[in-house]
Amino acid sequence: MTDDTREVVVTERVQHAHDVVGLTFADPSGAALPGWQAGAHIDLLLPEGRARQYSLCGSDGAWSIAVLNAPDGRGGSAWIHDNIREGDVIQVRGPRNKFPLAAAQRYVFIAGGIGITPIIAMVRELERRENQNWRLTYGGRSRESMAFLREIEGRGERVSIAPQDETGLIDVPAALGQPRIGTAVYCCGPEPLLRAVDRACRSWPPGTLHVERFTPVEADGTGDEPFEVVAGRSGVTVTVPAGVSVLDALADQGIHIATSCGEGVCGTCETKVLAGEVDHRDSLLTEEERTANTVMMVCRSRARGARLVLDV
Ligand code: FES
């Protein structure tokens, strides 16, 4: 548990698109909620201990999210669609930003479906700054399924709309253009789109691509071995058996690290690595961050060798 858990009241529920509802929150006391930057998300705390991450996408700092009722999802979004109404008080954590807008000479955004939510906040931010070089390709199953479509189409020629039932899947090479130094590529959407963009960006300068996932990448735990974790601040050594996370093994010894999603997607449990090589299994870190080996998500990632030393 982190100490940024708070109660918020739902002040508005709107239908953004077919199967996409928008929720806006306020502090029940009327106090201002903390500010956030484009790319930030909050965790909604749902029954049975589930936490689900949603990008903040309100205008002018409003705490608004958009939730797709994903038929093949893990049940969190369906529960929200069925149960959360205006006036309800719910628990949230955050905001936290693991997808910040980096400084760049130009920006290429690629959004698929509900992946538009962090991207629209970035586009609004760049428009606010004026004279920024950006373009966006936004795909979805059909126009009816695409949230914020009218606002995005109103941005003019910088935007390319790709409803799948009209034009097919996003043409990723066309959306990216030629590799250029100084370009930041931001992508959020379904896993096949993220993988296609990742593949296409391998010939681009390192650090170009920024992606955000809200569903965990599958990790194959077969063949996992136990290893030791040393809590660097106290010197306590803990054995992490196969099938147990570093987070849980440390908690069993009274060393508690803040956690939320437990699935390697939210970044709450990010912990500094002092020694040892990490087997990264999260869905957040970039290739450069994995190679740097300076932090790990202890809810999911493990050791590549026999021992890790962590700054806890
Ligand atoms: Fe979310 Fe570990 S708790 S990444």
Automatic annotation (TrEMBL):
InterPro entries from the UniProt entry: 2Fe-2S_ferredoxin-like_sf, 2Fe-2S_ferredoxin-type, 2Fe2S_fd_BS, Beta-grasp_dom_sf, FAD-bd_FR_type, FNR_nucleotide-bd, MRET, OxRdtase_FAD/NAD-bd
Pfam family, one: NAD_binding_1
FAD-binding FR-type domain segment(s): 3-102
Co-factor requirement: FAD
Domain 2Fe-2S ferredoxin-type: 225-312
The keyword Membrane belongs to this UniProt entry's keyword annotation: no
Record-listed E.C. numbers: 1.14.12.7
Record's keyword annotation contains Flavoprotein: yes
Alphabetized UniProt keyword annotations: 2Fe-2S, Dioxygenase, Flavoprotein, Iron, Iron-sulfur, Metal-binding, Oxidoreductase
A GO MF label: metal ion binding
Designated name of the protein: Phthalate 4,5-dioxygenase
Taxonomic source organism: Candidatus Protofrankia datiscae
